[in-house]
Amino acid sequence: MVTSNPFSALFGRSPFQPLLEHIDKTTECADLLLEFFEAAHESDWSRATELRNRISDGEHEADELKTRIRLNLPNSMFLPVSRSDLLELISVQDKIANKIKDVAGIMLGRQMQLPDSMVGPVREYLQTAVATVHQTRQALAELDDLLESGFGRNVSEMLNHQIRELHRLEHLADDQQVVVRRQLFSLENELPPVDVIFLYQIIDWIGEVSDRAERVGSRLQILMAR
Amino acid sequence: MTIIAQHGELFVILACLFGFFMAWGVGANDVANAMGTSVGSKAITIRQAILIAIVFEFLGAWLAGGEVTSTIRKGIIDPDLLKSDPQLLVYGMLASLLASAIWLMVASRKGWPVSTTHSVVGAIVGFAVAGLGPGSVHWTAIGQIVSSWLTSPLLAGVIAYLLFRSIQRLIFENDDPFAAAKRYVPGYMFLVGFIIAMVTLLKGLSHLGLPLGFGESLLLSLGIGAVVMLIGILLERRIGRTKKSDDRFSFSGVEQIFGVLMMFTACAMAFAHGSNDVANAVGPLAAVVSVVAHQGSVGASAELPWWILILGGGGIVVGLVTYGHKVIATVGTGITELTPSRGFAATLAAATTVVLASGTGLPISTTHTLVGAVLGVGLARGMRALNLRVLGTIVISWLVTLPAGAALSIVFFFMLKGMFG
């Protein structure tokens, strides 16, 4: 008899669930980047190609999720957070996956090989960047869990805790970046100059991954500040 | 006068049939809205919801449904104008019942969120204006009813907001929300029992021959509240602290405790709904029965015969059993964005508003009151997303239902008048 009940219609779909899905895709990409790094290190380029394609697919899916969230956030929704903050959050979030794809793309395209002495430090540096992405995901997931309390004092405490951790990881990545750069600088003369230019670029971009992950944390803080 | 004497029994039988039809519609449809939030928050199962609804809808109708029934029966139309033609009142009330029952069916099929209250009030006003002239209507009473349609969602919204804020303050912002929930939730249980009992005792029981004073009612309500609280504490004991690894504040345990509370608020809601909405079916029926029983003397201060409220309550239950369970299932599973704590705030606020209104005899729309309450929780940042476009649909259904009920009842009124003279 009832085709559309006013009650079930009154409750719109929460925008946080798709946001979580999006960050899940991004963390997947980040994990794949680690595998990709190992494959590249072993010069297993067919496996590296496959991994890069999977990263690219993941980034593409994340992109589609982003578009869907943007398009499906109608004005008729009454949300506990500001609409513009949400839109801002999703675009900041989306940039992480883009950068991950870029790193994999350039490494595969140039079939880059790191000098043996640098592999260890760069791996650690990359691991920190990936951990930052995971930390961002966790902050978002806990925020979603705690939404049901209607953002009390505990929630901001929790968020502050998560963001402090995020900041710590990003800072660690910065320190590791300095070490890796210094190492590359000392090897500069022995390597082909064009390779050096791109190595610097990779180092930069890995840093940007953790930077962008941290930026999501700041957006979350802004989201909660109202 | 002779018409009444001649066809009296037929009129009563017709009124019972139409009234039952209307009550069936209320049970089949409206109850689902009242119970939907409880099922949707997963606090109770659909089976439990139906059981609660059957018992408490019936109790609400029987114990506290009297005031609103008398408003519908004699508060809207001026009975003095009908002294010479009492049969017109009979036709009108029959027409109103049939009109709103049919409108309810049609709208439900189309999925429009109409209110049973609105269609009945619209129908009565409609036949009165068309058949008896605008002077026959108590316009101040109508004004009161109409304004209560605005104020009741507002009041429910404010109560829901305050309730949810208090839950936030006392429980969610506590360093140990689980312990806080165990400590404070019995207080909310007391509140549920106390408010419902108080309003019922003060306003509802006089027709059962149990007139209680304010002091006695207060004492009794305090007692009932305490009993409810005790039952709640016993149920609450069974909930242990379950620690999910990723749930730092054990909010899932808190929600489990609110789940217990939700059972009581579901009962309160069913009770409130029965007390207010049964009158939609029973009010016109009671008017017809009273006119026939008093050989056409319209103004007589007749007591409400006890079997009428039981007929209405029974109709609601039958509607619920034969059809309502499907609607509850649809509504209940459709609402996934409600946790027990939010569902509790919304439902208790709506229930309180409805029983208050029932106590003062105002027919209000349960659906709209609940919508107001849900919005109140949303304003306290408790809802993840609310679809405001639905509000527009609801407002439109308000605007459409009144004239639709009125038009249908005018048609039926003149049909009956043509048939019986």
UniProtKB/TrEMBL annotation, chain A:
Organism listed in the record: Kushneria phosphatilytica
PANTHER family documented for this protein: UPF0111 PROTEIN HI_1603 (PTHR36536)
Signal sequence, start to end: none
InterPro entries xref list: DUF47 (IPR002727), PhoU-like_sf (IPR038078), Put_Phosphate_transp_reg (IPR018445)
Protein name: TIGR00153 family protein
Family assignment from sequence similarity: Belongs to the UPF0111 family.
TrEMBL record, chain B:
MF annotations from Gene Ontology: phosphate transmembrane transporter activity
Principal place of residence: membrane
Keyword terms: Membrane, Phosphate transport, Transmembrane, Transmembrane helix, Transport
Transmembrane segments: 12-32, 44-64, 88-107, 119-139, 145-164, 185-205, 217-235, 256-274, 304-323, 344-366, 386-416
Biological process annotations from GO: phosphate ion transmembrane transport
Gene Ontology, cellular component aspect: membrane
UniProt-annotated location(s): Membrane
Membrane topology per record: Multi-pass membrane protein
UniProt keyword annotation of Ligase present: no
Alphabetized InterPro entries for the sequence: Phos_transporter
PANTHER family: PHOSPHATE TRANSPORTER
Family according to the record: Belongs to the inorganic phosphate transporter (PiT) (TC 2.A.20) family.
Protein name per UniProt: Phosphate transporter
Annotated organism of origin: Kushneria phosphatilytica
